[in-house]
Fold this sequence. Notes:
heterodimer; A: about 190 residues; two-stranded antiparallel sheet; about 20% helix; B: about 350 residues; four-stranded antiparallel beta sheet
Amino acid sequence: MEQESKFGRRDFIRVAATAAAAGAAWAAAHPSSGTTVWQLDPAKCLQCGRCSTTCVLNPSAVKCVHSFEICGYCDLCGGYLQPGAKARDSGAENELCPVGALKRTFVEEPFYQYTIDEELCVGCGKCVKGCAVFGNGSLYLQVKHDVCVGCNECSIARNCPANAFQRVPVRNSYLLKTRENGGKGHK
Amino acid sequence: MASTQKRLIPAWLWAGVAVIALAAALALFTMDRRSPPGASFAFNVSDYARISPKDVLFRETQRIAVNVPHPRAMAAARDGSLFVGGENAVLALDAEGKEQARFAVEGTPECMAVSPDGKLLLAWRNHVEVWDARGTRLSVWPDLGERACLTSIAADDKHVFVADAGNRVVLRYDPDGKLLGRIGEADPARNIPGLNVPSPYLDVAFDAMGSLWVVNPGKHGLENYRPDGDLLSSWYRPGMDLAGFCGCCNPIHIAFLSDGSVVTAEKGLSRIKLYGPDTTLSGVVATPEGLQAPETQALAYDADPPVKEVAVDARGRVLVLHQPLCAIFVFEKTDDMAPK
């Protein structure tokens, strides 16, 4: 006699639990496209310095970030050195950053790597302006989402003279400068 | 029993205090929390862009509209005609800028030159093509690989020199495209420092005597080479003053006048200057204001350099290819600077 296949209560619970777990995993990996956060468009940024003083946090949640693929690894770095610096070294009198957050490491003659100490960076954008004017524009500002408290009305956005702050989807929460996007920070 | 005891502080005073406290709280929440950043956080670069009018030796006498999208390459022929390469097209113009011909190409040439026999040498990112002036492709030279980034080309009777910024070298070819040598690679035994190219700008040009000059942008100067790669001379001028080349890598383009003077174009602070044969600064051809990109760019400094090429035509005029405005700016010496 052929046994009738039965879909019992136990099977139903198994399928339901599997579907719920898969749904939760998918939701975690793909937040709603309607969920947005504040971000700074580097193509619009004027490096006015207000990011450092108008954020509700002190120091600001805006930090300098570095696109290594755009950087020229220059010895004479416009973002690191004061214009007219007497020496190209890490002497405080030669550094452009007022808080010493930009670090310089020798790679090989004549190239140096530049990194940002985010603990020190206040987001003033001074190095960003130096890099934009005298270099390749590889240094730029971004809202760091591990620091940002996510105000509904961003205090910096309210004060930004270039209207450079915008809401971006949380899944693409950084507007990174790359060679592909021509260093504009977005496609 | 109803309380008839009189309050010590009247209700209106309580109300006043409450209003003041509320106003103070609102003010605290709405006003900027901190004072503006101090002087050490300020960085005003406009002082470096300022140029005294007495230093400007040239004036713009003509602006030739270039009817091709994203013009990127330009060359002046010995007969006075001009060629401009842009997106999917190359234009031939007469000396006054009137379009004589155009032909289609695939993509955008990065740079171009006119050989002494009138052929057009067009360089893409990693290869060179030879065309005739009527738009027939004559030959395609071998692909130089993914790392190549060709940025400048110059040709004389015997050689074609191609600047490869990606590999930091100038390649010497014969007119048929056979690779003959490499110029500019570091060689302490020959006292060659090596080309330092932090960004994709490496220019080559011949002086009035036909000698090859190569920009060493990371060292902020020019180097003069024999065709076999021997370094003849060099001069470097890093500095923030007008006579110097500032930034990570400058100059980005050069061209020579018949008297041996060299025209240099810079990025960052977009300006064009003239240096005499003795390498001293003669003056300014075009100021940053004169070369400013359209206002649509929020940050003029953080954009691609607007100047894509400089050239000197048969009449000694300085030609500047301005990409955002799709135009060639023509500069001529002001009257009081004309040879007496």
